Amino acid sequence: MFRHVEFALVSTLFAAQFAAAADLPKEGDFKLTFHVITESRRSIPMPEGQFANLNLETLVTTNDAGNGFLHSSTGRCMGMSSGDAKGGHATGFCTHTDADGDLIFLTLDVGFQSGSPITGRKTYTGGTGKYAGLNGNS
Questions:
Q1: pLDDT tens string for the chain (138 positions)?
Q2: Nearest C-alpha neighbor of 136 from the set 5, 15, 7
Q3: CA angle at residue 54 from 51 to 59, to 5 degrees?
Q4: Residue 134: per-residue pLDDT
Q5: How many CA atoms does the CB half-sphere of 33 hold within 13 Å?
Q6: Minimal CA–CA distance to 93: which of 105, 110, 111, 82?
Q7: pTM: predicted TM-score of the whole model, two decimal places
Q8: Contact 103, 94 (CB under 8 A)
Q9: Do 93 and 106 form a contact (C-beta atoms < 8 A)?
Q10: Phi-psi region of 54 (alpha: psi -120 to 50; beta: other; left: phi over 0)
C-alpha cells in the first residue's frame, strides 16, 4: 500500500562538528518539507476504531530555501504508529542520504491530529562524511 503525505518542519540544528565541510554552518534554522510514501505497513488487531502499525517509508526532503541542509535528500524510515481517527503517535528511526552520498541519522517522536500539522521532535544522532558528529533537534 502506498500513501503519500507531505509535512513541513521548522527546525534548529546544532552540529558538534562537521568533518571536512567548512562551508556548512555549525548551527542554524531551517524549514524542511518531507514527501513521504508508505512502502509497507503491518497492522495488528486493535479495539474498534484504533490502530497499531509497523511502517516502512521512503522520503524525499526539500529545504524550503531551495538549498542547504537536507535539500533534495532521500530517506528511509522504520517506525511504529498508533492511534485512532482523531490522531495518534509515531516513533522511529530514519537515515537520509544527501547528493554526495553522506548519511544523516535521526530518531523521531511525533504526534498527529486529524486536520492539524504533524508535531513533535526529530533528534539528529550523527552521520557520515561531512555530517560526522551531527547532533540537534527539530
A1: 434 444 444 444 444 334 444 456 677 788 888 899 999 999 999 999 999 999 999 999 999 999 988 899 999 999 999 999 999 999 999 999 998 999 999 999 999 999 998 899 999 999 999 999 999 988
A2: 15
A3: 115
A4: 92
A5: 11
A6: 105
A7: 0.77
A8: no
A9: yes
A10: beta
Task: Tell me the residue range of the domain where 118 lies.
Answer: 4-137
User: What's the pLDDT at 31?
Assistant: 87
Cα(48)–Cα(114) distance, integer angstroms:
18
Cell numbers describing residue 84: 485512532
Q: What is the DSSP letter of 48?
A: T
Total structural domains in the chain? 1
Q: Are 79 and 92 in contact (CB under 8 A)?
A: yes
* Separation between Cα atoms, residue 116 and residue 94, nearest integer Å: 23
